[in-house]
TrEMBL record:
Entry's Gene Ontology molecular function annotations: methyl indole-3-acetate esterase activity; methyl jasmonate esterase activity; methyl salicylate esterase activity
Segments forming domain AB hydrolase-1: 118-356
GO BP, sorted A to Z: jasmonic acid metabolic process; salicylic acid metabolic process
Signal peptide: none
Pfam family, one: Abhydrolase_6
Keyword Hydrolase part of the UniProt annotation: yes
Record's keyword terms, sorted: Hydrolase
Organism of provenance: Artemisia annua (Sweet wormwood)
SUPFAM superfamilies per the UniProt record, alphabetical: alpha/beta-Hydrolases
Protein name as it appears in the record: AB hydrolase-1 domain-containing protein
Amino acid sequence: MGICLSKKSKRSTARIYNKRISNQTSSSNRWSRIRSSSVQSDDAVISEHAIAAAILFQQQNGGLLPFNRSMSVRNQRQQAMSRNSSTTRRRSVKDPLLLPPQMIVQEVNHDELETSHIVLVHGGGFGAWCWFKIIALLQECKFKVTAIDLSGSGIDRFDPNAIKSLSQYVKPLTDFLEMLPDGEKVILAGHDIGGACISYAMELFPDKVAKAIFIAASMLKTGKSTRDMFSHKDNMNDLMRQAQKFLYANGNNQPPTAIDLDKSLLNDLLFNQSCAKDVVLASISMRPIPFSPILDKLSLSDSNYGSIRRFYIETPEDNAIPITLQQIMINESPPEKVFRLKGADHCPFFSKPQALHKLLVEIAKIK
């Protein structure tokens, strides 16, 4: 038995059918927009990694820091970051917050600064590569930035196991400072054992250092070594002990020559607030830490080291140099001012790059 539809019913049915088609088209368009936005977001990530790769490539081919990116690369990055990002994945609290350039760049009157040149000194196992986010942000603010590869670190060809002293480890930094023109000053920023390195350099070149910034770093008194910093049993947690692997390049019956870190524990020890991509970059880029420089005691004088303004940046979520140990160093050798980088792990150049950049600029502006 057939069903007979009146003209009115047919028109009504047609409207319903057309509405369904319209809804399907709208849904399809929404899906297309989601996929398109996701692709755009991926493009932004690729662009960021391309910048990092370009930095490393420039270093490996004898390029001198600071790193100058072409305008085309800058424009691509700005365009990618300025698009509205929408993905189907829910944001994790550990994901880096990428802000549009206009929200990152701070107004800085460089004529009012004692110096606009910031020298970044990495910590144990790292290299100049670890600062790539900070370099980009500072350069957006027109700072001159130099990132140093200490001996046996980054792309420096020296064997970490063959480094016999702190002075040998710090030589790339001291060579750089020695070559600075008379009257030119820089701001030194050291991370981790890079704190001991900049302290050593401050003692040698007090007239070339305007300020020193210790970022979750070893800020030691005279007569102390980095090893002394961890000498109290409460200052080295079990995770640090588990992660350390001593290397004996001269034989097992000789003292250790370097310390390597267990890659499986890096995330918990150093990067507990950092995103996965940065952890991967670090795990394939880090090198063993020379052992001898950790043993060397610093000789610091009030007339040289003590004449330079010091600032400390605390990292409260730090599992490598716990906040309690940072505060012990601060109390024993008080700096001019202490800043706390909320939510930062041991490597704030990964976990809190924008906030760290903001503090570096703020310290540079202090008169």
